[in-house]
UniProtKB/TrEMBL annotation:
<dbReference type="GO" id="GO:0005737">
    <property type="term" value="C:cytoplasm"/>
</dbReference>
<keyword id="KW-0433">Leucine-rich repeat</keyword>
<keyword id="KW-0677">Repeat</keyword>
<dbReference type="InterPro" id="IPR032675">
    <property type="entry name" value="LRR_dom_sf"/>
</dbReference>
<feature type="region of interest" description="Disordered">
    <location>
        <begin position="31"/>
        <end position="51"/>
    </location>
</feature>
<protein>
    <submittedName>
        <fullName>LRC43 protein</fullName>
    </submittedName>
</protein>
<dbReference type="InterPro" id="IPR001611">
    <property type="entry name" value="Leu-rich_rpt"/>
</dbReference>
Amino acid sequence: PGSVSAAIQEYLQHLGLQDFPCGFGSWNKSRLNTRRSPRAEPAGLEEDVPLGEESPEALLELLRDQHSPWALPPDCSPQDRLLREVAALAPELLHGSRVFQAVKSLRILDKGVEELDEGLLQFQQLEELILSANHISRVTSAHLPRTLKVLELCYNAVDDLKDLCAQPPPELQHLGLGYNRLCGPSQEKQLTVDFWPNLVSLDLSFNSLTDLLELVSQLSTLQNLHILVLQGNPLALIPTYRGFLVDSLPKLSVLDDIHIGPEERQQFHGLAKQPELIRSEAQVVVSIGEIKGLLNPEAFQRLEVGSEGPVISYSYCVTYEF
């Protein structure tokens, strides 16, 4: 429980690649036992299907018809549909460990995964790995397939990049680490070209990054970086935040989901050479529109002239929690 291997097994069981109408069984035994060429095999002729078996067309209909009990939900991925159809038409291609060679995209969302174990290495052709909304705090890069191009780890508990950068996938193009617990740039400079030579897109949104100058010094080495998301970090409160990034990273084309045009780049030209404009502090203005449920002090101060009655005073304390 909590390992990515356990979640993978649950995923494969959900696909049912070895169960009717997929896989091997009495519903297709004569067709699979005869090793005839597909060209010599008549297609779509129900009368040529032995009694008790199903034609390839009938098996596909069971998978594709949304009213069928064997149909996948409408929001499933195209890969899931393709794997099911291949398992129905040519189950020998996905038999046993061969299924791991066919999977190029793996999405395991909100499954309680805490650990990335060696089970991922079975996917020798994996290009996209989505593990968002789990409980992952440590990413062991030695357990990541070297073929990965997309790694999404949003909404986890990652607070350090040291393990991830030990043996990072060399071809990775997108790294998603939004909504984690990253607190600041590492002393080892783990967001540089030495670790991510092919990175095109980087999402570090909604963490606790504060040092904009140090972060920019690392990101400026990523020659292929075109998309960057940093919104939600304390450093995004700096008044010159966007302008400094736009001028410091000339190859950047999208920042915080907003396209960088020639006019904006010209507007902030030269700002990268003025780091003194970046302050390590931010000003927050809080205004109170209305407070309800408190006694009105004026009602107790309406005393007649010369009255010896006691004067009652009230004081209130308002606490802001950030």
